């Protein structure tokens, strides 16, 4: 087989190390700064590269790191896996209900095979796509995955590349699409050997993680090709249906043709070649509709983006929190919720006190379809980046959790749940690491405590990221699913998702058609999508919610209610009585 490597930092020679044998590599006859050699190898053969007199380094394009990021790479035969779901037609984003899942804590086993065995639960729930948090190799066994260092490979403790293919194959066999979270804006600080090979990073820009990934400085053509090839490999070789792109606002890229445009064009081209839909979902802090505007209209051409503004508005309405980036939303939380539900972004050219400047840009409601924006009440970020990793279930009543579910699952955006949210899981989801470098482990521990000391937390109250118990506390407890109030919440989520699939109005992409009303003081909120109306009462006392009555008003029927015995259809005056901390979904007769 042909072994190749881009190594512009090699002065005189590059050698292939293959199962203990060193073979000199030749300069590539066509590709500048590339080295190549033909050698006999088979699936599982260990190999690596030696530059000049340096140590053995793993392949930057390694598909498998069986001994971790610092060990040799292993050959992965491209045709060794036999797919059962060869006729998978793909599953697009419109009409989707996503489920964010972390392999290491979805089950206590923390493996892809263990997670795959539980996918039937998501089919019963009504989920259409599983969104996997990053699976690339990182030091140690357990971690969030955002410090991965080998963007072409699969974390070995999760099961490696074969296990990921088995997971995708199982999901597709059940009718589930699979989305993978990928990180292009940085690599982890430990086990990252790319700087030995070439200018993968640049000091032209600086990020919270140090030197930026090189997308626009000298040598960036090869770096962009490296990341582009990795992204396409997940979609092509692992048959993913989409990718979630982590923190695209942290991609420093000053070139006229940005990396994101190049990536979106390549993904659209691959979708055409494969004959199945593929999509890219951006995590972005920019509140910029150009992220998902088609390329031919001057946008980046990504297919969807997370909407944190909707989350922040919903969170403050539910909890009353007002610190940090919640401050602007907390001044009038229902007004903020109404703005985001009807206009997508809260910051659309308005002032942000958290940033100290104006922020964002308006969305053209007549041109931007609703499914291009993801709506959610909880994510790994919004739970795990809290001091104790506490979920909404730690501070809200089951009724308010039901209200959150109604607003997410019947709202205009593509809904997404975080694993365990559907039954109001009581387990936290905390920040945990498994760094093998003692100095880095201590630095992370101190940094976490220092971060939350500014908010008044005592150091001893902050979970130690390196303690294995922190990860174990974060594993889901499925025994809760059969106990109250968890079983009732699980049934409620199933009902709402079924309504979303059954009623075309709930998947209508027309943002301009959303109608919203609310009473900040009385704490009720109602919105209409076609013939479906959703009323939530976030207050403790019953609320009289006006839906509009009088001559010519159409009668309504209850499609779903958190407290069905306490709800009556609207009186002749069009007023709906909603119990405290409860919600109702209505349809026209």
From TrEMBL:
Catalytic activity: hydrolysis of (1->4)-alpha-D-glucosidic linkage in 4-alpha-D-[(1->4)-alpha-D-glucanosyl]n trehalose to yield trehalose and (1->4)-alpha-D-glucan
Alphabetical list of SMART domains matching this protein: Aamy (SM00642)
Organism: Streptomyces formicae
Entry's family note: Belongs to the glycosyl hydrolase 13 family.
InterPro entries the record matches: DUF3459 (IPR022567), GH (IPR017853), GH13_cat_dom (IPR006047), Ig-like_fold (IPR013783), Ig_E-set (IPR014756), Trehalose_TreZ (IPR012768), Trehalose_TreZ_E-set_sf (IPR044901)
Keyword annotations from UniProtKB, A to Z: Carbohydrate metabolism, Cytoplasm, Glycosidase, Hydrolase
Subcellular locations according to the entry: Cytoplasm
Protein name in the entry: Malto-oligosyltrehalose trehalohydrolase
Signal peptide: none
Leading EC class: hydrolase
CDD domains reported for this sequence: AmyAc_GTHase, E_set_MTHase_like_N
Domain of life: Bacteria
Pathway(s) it belongs to: Glycan biosynthesis; trehalose biosynthesis
């Amino acid at each position: 087989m042909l072994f190749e490597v881009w190594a512009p930092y090699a002065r005189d020679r590059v050698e292939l190390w293959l199962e203990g044998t060193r073979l000199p590599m030749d300069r590539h006859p066509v590709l500048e700064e590339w080295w190549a050699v033909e050698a006999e190898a088979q699936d599982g053969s260990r190999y690596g590269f030696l530059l000049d007199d340096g140590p053995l380094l793993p392949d930057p394009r390694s598909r498998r790191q069986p001994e971790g990021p610092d060990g040799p790479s292993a050959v992965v035969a491209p045709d060794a896996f036999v797919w059962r779901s060869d006729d998978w037609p793909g599953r697009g984003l419109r009409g989707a209900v996503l489920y964010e899942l972390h392999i290491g804590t979805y089950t206590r086993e923390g493996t892809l095979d263990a997670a795959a065995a539980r996918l039937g639960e998501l089919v019963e729930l009504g989920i259409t796509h599983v969104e996997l948090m990053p699976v690339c190799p990182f030091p140690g066994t357990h971690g969030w995955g955002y410090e991965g260092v080998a963007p072409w490979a699969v974390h070995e403790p999760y099961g490696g590349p074969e296990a990921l293919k088995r997971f995708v194959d199982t999901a597709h066999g059940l009718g589930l699409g699979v989305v993978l979270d990928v990180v292009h804006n940085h690599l982890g600080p430990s086990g990252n050997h790319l700087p030995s090979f070439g200018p993968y990073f640049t000091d032209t820009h600086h990020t919270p993680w140090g030197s930026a990934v090189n997308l626009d400085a000298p040598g960036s053509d090869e770096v962009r090709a490296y990341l582009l090839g990795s992204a396409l490999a997940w979609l092509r070789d692992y048959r993913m249906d989409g990718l979630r792109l982590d923190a695209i606002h942290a991609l420093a890229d000053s070139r006229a043709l940005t990396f994101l445009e190049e990536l979106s064009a390549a993904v659209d081209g691959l979708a055409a070649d494969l004959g199945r839909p593929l999509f890219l979902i951006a995590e972005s802090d920019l509140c910029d509709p150009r992220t998902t505007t088609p390329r031919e209209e001057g946008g980046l051409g990504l297919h969807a983006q997370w909407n944190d503004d909707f989350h922040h508005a919903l969170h403050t309405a539910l909890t009353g929190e007002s610190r940090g980036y919640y401050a602007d939303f907390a001044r009038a939380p229902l007004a903020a919720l109404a703005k985001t539900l009807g206009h997508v972004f809260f910051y659309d050219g308005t002032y942000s006190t958290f940033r100290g400047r104006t922020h964002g840009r308006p969305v053209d409601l007549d041109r931007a379809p609703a499914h291009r924006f993801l709506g959610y009440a909880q994510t790994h970020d919004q739970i795990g980046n809290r001091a104790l990793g506490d979920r909404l279930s730690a501070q809200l009543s089951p009724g308010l959790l039901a209200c959150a579910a109604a607003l997410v699952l019947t709202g205009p955006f593509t809904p997404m749940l975080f694993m365990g949210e559907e039954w109001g899981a009581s387990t936290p989801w905390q920040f945990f690491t498994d760094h093998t470098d003692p100095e880095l482990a201590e630095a992370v521990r101190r940094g976490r405590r220092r971060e939350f000391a500014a908010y008044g937390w005592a150091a001893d109250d902050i979970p130690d990221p390196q303690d294995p118990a922190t990860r174990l506390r974060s594993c889901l407890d499925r025994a809760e699913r059969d106990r109250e109030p968890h079983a009732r919440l699980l049934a409620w989520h199933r009902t709402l998702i079924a309504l979303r699939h059954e009623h075309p109005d709930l998947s209508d992409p027309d943002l301009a058609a959303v109608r919203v009303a609310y009473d900040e003081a009385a704490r009720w909120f109602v919105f209409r999508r076609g013939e479906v109306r959703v009323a939530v009462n976030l207050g403790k006392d019953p609320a009289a919610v006006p839906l509009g009555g009088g001559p010519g008003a159409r009668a309504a029927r209850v499609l779903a209610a958190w407290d069905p015995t306490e709800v009556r259809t609207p009186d002749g005056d069009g007023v709906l009585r909603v119990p405290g901390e409860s919600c109702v979904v209505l349809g026209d007769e």
